[in-house]
Amino acid sequence: MRHFGHIPSAARAALFHREPAEFTADSPARTLAVALGATLYSPATRPRLADAVRKQAARGVVSMVLCLEDSIGDADVAAGEANLVAEFRALADDRAAGGPDVPLLFIRVREPAQITDLTARLGDTVALLAGFVLPKFTEHRGRAFLEALTEAEHTAGRRLFAMPVLESPELLHLETRAETLAGIAALTDKYRDRILALRLGVTDFCSAYGLRRSPDMTAYDVKVVSHVIADVVNVLGRADGTGFTITGPVWEYFRPGERIFKPQLRRSPFLEGRAEDLRTALIEHDMDGLLREIELDRANGLLGKTCIHPTHVLPVHALSVVSHEEWSDAQDILRPERDGGGVLRSAYTNKMNEVKPHRAWAERTLVRAEVFGVAREDVGFVELLTAGLAG
């Protein structure tokens, strides 16, 4: 797998100063956590699920969650489990016949017992499974999930990752938040080798207060939500070796709707070629709000995003590519001769790079550059979006 691998090699060469590197399900966890990108959710009950997985992989999706939890009704769980077992077999048979690789596949379960049960039922097709998504994760509830994951690893004979979802009322409510975060930190540290990333359930946060943001607003405009995100990053997203990759919240909108505020996308990056048409299409589909939220995700320490519609994938990936300027700054900061610290003017002569304070940012930037690539100097997200749509 590689990001932007669905577009022709000549087009990639024209876009990237350094192309995205290839990775597999066996790559180091640090690489995979960053490489998740836009993680596309699909109900486990979906008919012809294997075909859908292959179709999305061909469009550039590299991680998917097949959901047995909130996306399906209580009465459909057994059917969803049976469908997963059958569709994993279809995917495995296709791979054995020389078919293409599949994305990193995760199953979102409801209860710990589903982890061990499904692992056994999948049989040899468990080789296609990257891990499990654990809902409403707290120290108390999460322990049983992670113990079941450990048992499932022994059954499967291979590494399986966990992606806890932080969405419980105990985390949202101010009076219990600090204690809940401390408990989650202690438990996830104990199982650090199995925690690939932490996901945020912002829809559940809003539900607790009867809220729903409009397509003109980001999660960061809903203050009760943005405060939780800040506290989660504060405790669980530190760059001192104790933190984890934390992914951005879901963007709910994918159909045109009435707009309240003026469009947030500036016209200037879109004035050439197909770009103006692209700008218009994005605004008509409420995607400018998504683009702004992706930028705010990264500014607030989040990487990647939960997605519920295929049209959200490419914007997430395009805005995850490291710009040539970012890469240049990170390279300068991490030069061996800079180990003693100091301050230097950036190669773009537009900012100060202070070596010691900016080191953690630079290290994270180079990991992102490895999996998402480095754009050429004259290439921005508009060109990446346009190429991805054409591919």
Strand order of the largest sheet: 8-7-6-5-4-3-2-9
| Beta-strand percentage range | 5-15%
CATH class of the largest domain: Alpha Beta
Q: What structural category do the secondary elements indicate?
A: alpha/beta
Q: In total, how many beta strands?
A: 12
Order of helices and strands: HEHEHEHEHEHEHHEHHEHHEHHEEHEH
What distance lies between the first and last C-alpha atoms, to the nearest angstrom? Answer: 16 Å
Helices and strands in order:
Elements: H1 9-15, E1 16-18, H2 29-35, E2 38-43, H3 49-58, E3 63-67, H4 77-96, E4 104-108, H5 112-122, E5 129-134, H6 139-156, E6 161-166, H7 169-172, H8 174-190, E7 198-200, H9 202-207, H10 223-236, E8 246-247, H11 275-284, H12 287-299, E9 305-307, H13 313-318, H14 324-333, E10 343-345, E11 352-354, H15 355-372, E12 374-375, H16 381-390
Helix pairs in contact: 2-15, 3-4, 5-6, 6-8, 8-10, 14-15
